[in-house]
Structures are given as C-alpha cells and as structure tokens.
Amino acid sequence: xxxxxxxxxxxxxxxxxxxxxxxxxxxxxxxxxxxxxxxxxxxxxxxxxxxxxxxxxxxxxxxxxxxxxxxxxxxxxxxxxxxxxxxxxxxxxxxxxxxxxxxxxxxxxxxxxxxxxxxxxxxxxxxxxxxxxxxxxxxxxx
Length: 142
Fold this sequence. Notes:
alpha+beta, five-stranded antiparallel sheet, D-amino Acid Aminotransferase, Chain A, domain 1, 20% helix, 3 helices
C-alpha cells in the first residue's frame, strides 16, 4: 500500500475540498474469484464466515451479493484473530480477499458489522453471540 499525501504550501487553502488536497491510499489490485469473505469475530472467536459472491465480480451488499457459508479454517481463524488483535479486538467483521495463488489477504476490519443475511447460511445466531459477549464482558458501575 502506498500513501499519497499533498504537499503543504501557502496556497493549500485555495484547494481545500478538492481531490488534490486529500490524502489517498493506493494499493495493488488483487485478482479475486468474484467473491470475498466476511468473517465475524466476537471476543477471541471467529464465530463464522460467509462468501459474498456476485455475478458482477463486485462482492458487496450494494451489488446484490449472494451469501453462502465459508468454513472457518485454521488459517482463516488465525488471520482473523491477528487482525482483531491489531485493532483491540471486540466485536468485528473482517473482510478478506482470496489471491490467485490461494492465500488470504485482510482487506478491511469493520467495527460495526452487517450480519443480517449471514446467520441463515452459516447456521450461527450471530446476534445471540454478540449479546452473550456483551453481557459477559459488561462492567456494571453503580
């Protein structure tokens, strides 16, 4: 990944709001199989994962991606746990990409997870897992 940041100068204020003023992150394109993986981490467990597959090749909820169960392998679990630990853990949705050579790459870590269409294909009651975690880790202050 490469960071492209604007050069600060006396006329920077005149460009405020334009694309030339903003910071941009550029990363290499990853050829993927028309799907991505969303894994759900609650506490120290990767509770389930789904493939998000789209006929358009853009597997996002905006492209009407179809969710199907993705097995949580040891490799997927380890990568998700490491990504979760890097941001302090908790309740997270981690988006991963599969590379052409079969490796997994973390694309994004979300602190607010969208799981409405994920419980049915995985068979995991994600909302219940989240509620259980919150109740187990809540601190009561009087």
